[in-house]
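I'll show a typical protein example:
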Amino acid sequence: MNDLPPDLARLRTLETWLALQLDRVRQQIADLERRETERQRGEQARPPVPDWMIEGGLNRDSPAVYVHVGGCHMAGKRVRGVPRDVALRALAEGVDACSHCRPDAELGFLEG
């Protein structure tokens, strides 16, 4: 069974439409490839996750609120990466340890 039109005029119209559709598909492929390349470039340029983080208060002058293990999913937006000794000092000064990632246990910090 032949599902193509029998005359030349309609075949030419179909050819034109298919060429336009193919151009749209190729453009979409190019756009998606460009986005994927940008995503990969962004992942490669992303700085490494810090080992320890301190979550600050609501403003610049507020004391620290929590100490987190780097990459903790419960860390808020006001976090900064810190070295191990700064995280230990913050815990010793009374900054709370995150109850989800338990940086005090990771750091071997014993209260008292």
In short: Residues 52-107 form one domain. Helices lie at 8-45, 84-92, 103-107. The chain has two domains: 1-46, 52-107. The chain has a mean pLDDT of 92.
